Amino acid sequence: MGQIEWAMWANEQALASGLILITGGIVATAGRFTQWYFGAYSIVAGVFVCLLEYPRGKRKKGSTMERWGQKYMTAVVKLFGPFTRNYYVRAVLHLLLSVPAGFLLATILGTACLAIASGIYLLILWDRR
Amino acid sequence: MGNWVVNHWFSVLFLVVWLGLNVFLFVDAFLKYEKADKYYYTRKILGSTLACARASALCLNFNSTLILLPVCRNLLSFLRGTCSFCSRTLRKQLDHNLTFHKLVAYMICLHTAIHIIAHLFNFDCYSRSRQATDGSLASILSSLSHDEKKGGSWLNPIQSRNTTVEYVTFTSIAGLTGVIMTIALILMVTSATEFIRRSYFEVFWYTHHLFIFYILGLGIHGIGGIVRGQTEESMNESHPRKCAESFEMWDDRDSHCRRPKFEGHPPESWKWILAPVILYICERILRFYRSQQKVVITKMNKRGFSMEVGQYIFVNCPSISLLEWHPFTLTSAPEEDFFSIHIRAAGDWTENLIRAFEQQYSPIPRIEVDGPFGTASEDVFQYEVAVLVGAGIGVTPFASILKSIWYKFQCADHNLKTKKIYFYWICRETGAFSWFNNLLTSLEQEMEELGKVGFLNYRLFLTGWDSNIVGHAALNFDKATDIVTGLKQKTSFGRPMWDNEFSTIATSHPKSVVGVFLCGPRTLAKSLRKCCHRYSSLDPRKVQFYFNKENF
Questions:
Q1: pLDDT single digits (tens) B484-497
Q2: pLDDT of B432-479, one tens digit each?
Q3: Among residues B389, B344, B346, B423, which one has the least CA distance to residue B523?
């Protein structure tokens, strides 16, 4: 367990969740499902999560492969300051963001995936104990 | 171009057939659900999204059948062995099993997305038609009772006005298994990205076993019979083409048409996945059985183990981790009476293994071995002149090849056409590869003893040099052995200039066929391939370079 940097997997999972939230949100909004405004929220939340998680953080050990074009995003993410660097804050942020999307069937998958990503980020803190 | 076609025609054909089948199944199922009278009334509520969902479901069944097959390693090895009469090109395709597994996985993800989106629309349509009070056909169909006493011939799975789609999703078997399967699929995909796989293998290995939930979920997904079509009996009695228009009069006693009755579509996914699941279970049992065979360590021996150059094995060490199996390329030659691997500390498992072996006072841990797997790199022995390029850890399979070539050469093996080898070793620093260094030193000595110094020509390129090292090398320029490696060949610094190398080889062997083999990064493959094209003569009788992208 010692050497696994869970943050890397949490990052992949959160990025995937962001995309799923966006897709679910588009389906709900375009189809004008009941309570489709949750779908609109889901699109915004999904875009935010994707932008936040796109820059891959530097690994503690070994070289890190950057994602294509991530240096532009990193400049924006850094503006949010300490909020984004701290994993605990990210875990709580993802958990809170995922809740509203849970009210709509089209976006509930995004909720589940983002909540799991949040759980993996929390695992880092548990691992550090 | 011709070279590419000769090497890849089978892969292209295979992929075209697979894609073609996917398209065919999708279109066929789509048309069936879009046109068939059995689903006439269902379509009245749902529209074309019914056909979309069913078409993608059929493709999901098809691809789920295929996904387990490429990972039955022992089955593939068996096929490779029994098809020895097949050409090597055909057998080499079996080495691309993981690429095919990934392609099928992407297709499953695509169809899962289509299936879920279509069903989201379906559920929304069902929900609206249940809420509707306008006496339309859709609302009458939705009111057909779920009561078993009246035959249970309902169409709309949403039973009452107050039932939400979320409730139906999480209380029906189809919905619940669907959610579980999709989450398992997403977790498997995110932990299987190349970055995670190469850096944190254990995360990938354990998470990927969620496929069990996927397969189980798929097996029982269709049990509830939520997809409803009109029964045969009901169609004979009141055919939709005749009766749909007069739906307001269905309850009239003197009407020819009765209320239609519906039945669920029986589950069929289990029929698709049964055979591959059984094959895979056999595969796991076989892996377990082979792992129980005794392995003698220091120089590894196992009864009935026979290997060829370029193959790899899976190793498990129960005292470190019961469930993890890690792949390693074999570094010994088939002519030796033992087999060996070289393990680099690159993560939790490997570090623990090295530490366990280094313990002075505890007994050597038991290890389990499964394999060998992979197509043998016999091609190397077919070329008169072989150019072998190993970059970094990519040098490992060449250990096996070089040793084997040397044994064959010593025994004057007639199958060995090779007369000259050019070996290029490119790495940042040699520290981790001192065992390979030792191999080259011993080969050097043996060649001198036999008086065949010209057989192996190797060059080492250190890409992680600094001015200290270079300065030191310059000072010791006229020493017989190299100060960095102790080998007779001097180390070069920086990357090789391939144009110079290729033109020298072309000039020295103007009439030969030269095989170029690489184990290294893709960018290097591109430059080598370019050089092969550039320096191959237009005249087929003169020097020809063939680039082999072997699957090491």
A1: 666 666 677 788 88
A2: 667 777 778 887 787 778 777 778 888 888 887 667 767 777 777 777
A3: B389
- Could you tell me the CA-to-CA distances from B481 to A17, B194, B436, B490 in Å, in that order? 58, 41, 17, 7
Chain A residues whose CB is inside 8 A of the B165 CB are 34, 105
Beta-carbon-side half-sphere exposure of residue B284 (alpha carbons within 13 Å): 9
A8 contacts on B by Cβ (under 8 Å): 195-196, 199-200
Residue bearing the bigger pLDDT, A115 or B130: A115
Alpha-carbon distances of B4 from B1, B12, B94, B103, B360, rounded to whole Å = 5, 11, 18, 21, 53
Nearest one of B114, B13, B99, B100 to B55, comparing CA atoms: B114
Cβ-in-10-Å burial (0-12, 13-18, 19+) of B165 comes to buried
What's the rounded Cα separation, in Å, for the pair B173 and A89?
37
| Distance (Å, whole) CA B341 – CA B343 | 6
As a whole number of angstroms, the distance between CA B255 and CA A68 comes to 68
Give the residue on B whose Cα is nearest the Cα of A104: B166
Give the integer Cα–Cα distance in Å for B148 and B150. Answer: 5
**What is the DSSP secondary structure assignment for residue B333, as one 8-state letter?**
-
| Separation CA B549–CA A111 (nearest Å) | 43
**Which token pair is A20?**
């799923």
Are B46 and B125 spatial neighbours (Cβ–Cβ below 8 Å)? yes
Residues near B64 by beta carbon (within 8 Å), at least 6 away in sequence: B108, B214, B215, B218, B269, B272, B273
Tokens for B470? Answer: 């270079």
**Nearest residue in B to A15, CA atom:** B190
Whose structure tokens read 């895979």?
B280
Lookup: tokens for B539? 């005249």
Distance from CA of B118 to the nearest CA of A (A): 10
Contact A50, A14 (CB under 8 A): no
